[in-house]
Amino acid sequence: MPPMLHGDVPSPMQAEYLEEMLWTIPEVESVQAFYDSPSTEDETRAEHWRGVGIILRCGREAADAAVSSVLDKLGSDVIPAPLLAALMRHRQSRALQDADWAEVWKQFWGVTRITDRLVICPSWEKAHYTPKPGEWVIQLDPENVFGTGTHDTTQLMLQRLEALADQEDFSQKSILDVGMGSGILGIYAAMRGCRMVRGIDIEPAAVHTAADNATRNGVADRTDFSDTPLDALCRTKYDLILANIIAPVILELLPDICRRLAIGGQLYLSGLVAQSVGPMGERLLEEGFTDIERYQQGDWYALSSVYAGA
After folding, report:
1. Phi, psi of 266 (to 5 degrees)
2. What is the domain count for the chain?
3. Residue 202 lies in a domain
């Protein structure tokens, strides 16, 4: 059940729900909440929440229609009409051509440290960054698809992969990344020794981008990326499946994910906000998952679980 919004200002959970729904727009590239105070305290953030900005890869008219469609889905029973204007008064829709997207990121995205040993380095910064001893460096150019490593959801997944690779022999694992975007997760898994990484994405552009990034990092021979739909994949059983998307999409794909996960295999999910965690955990239990663990960074959550079979 989505959170009810009342009064003049939404709570942090309510604002997060709106942001999550905006991420469901196919053309979305960025969703960012705006505050007039730098405080990170939930109560203060709620008081100073001023709206949400959104960048879409489409024209202004199409952008307005897409956002209006999301609000229609939410309905006035979720967002009372008097609050709609307040929620969206700082919305900014910006039309970006595909060719412009990489240039936008080059202006605002630099070297990103994920953990003490893992760094994401934009390909154009390679010559200016000297890795420290024992450091893993992923060279990346996201072009016009999701997956720079700057978002909390991606960082949560990379942190989980690092922990798993430290504990287990990745050379014996097969991995499927559902919604691979730039290929960042699968590439890191391959760098850590995995010999069979498959990535799929509904965006055809992601296939080219992920393949280029795999080549940059010397793992093209251990990765395979395609725009094959999940339900059309052969019934190969994977040891680990990754899905860094959003809760509504994950829930829709979960039956097909289960069909392709080996008994005893692990599932890592991210892209969850606070109100999605409980329902997602309940659904995982219904589908035969055990050992569910939760991880948080900022306002976002990830879950790991083990598949015991339906």
Report:
1. -110, 150
2. 2
3. yes
Strand 238-244, strand 261-272: pairing = parallel
Among candidate residues 56, 80, 96, the one where a domain is terminated: 96
Mean pLDDT by 10 residues, the chain (310 residues): 44 62 68 54 52 64 71 56 49 49 59 92 85 93 77 92 94 94 95 95 90 96 95 92 92 95 97 90 96 92 94
The residue to which tokens 């339900």 are assigned: 231
Give the residue carrying structure tokens 């307040």. 86
With a threshold of 0.90, does the pTM exceed it? no
* Alpha carbon of residue 204 to chain centroid: 17
Indicate if 295 and 211 belong to the same structural domain: yes
Crossing angle of helices 274-286/12-22, nearest 10°?
70
What is the distance between the alpha carbons of residues 276 and 2, in angstroms, rounded to a whole number?
9
**Angle 18-207-298 (CA atoms, 0-180°, nearest 5)?**
30
Domain membership flag for residue 124: no
Residue 197 and residue 271 in one domain: yes
User: By residue range, what is the domain housing residue 207?
Assistant: 151-307
Number of other residues whose CB lies within 10 A of the CB of residue 40? 9
Q: b/e per residue, 124-159, with b = 16+ CB within 10 A?
A: eeeeeeeeeeeebbbbbbbbbbbbbbebbbbbbbbb
Domain co-membership, 303 together with 155:
yes
Which helix (H) or strand (E) segment is 153 a member of? helix 152-167
Tell me how far apart the alpha carbons of residues 133 and 167 are, in angstroms, rounded to a whole number: 20
The domain that holds 36 is classified in CATH as 3.30.300
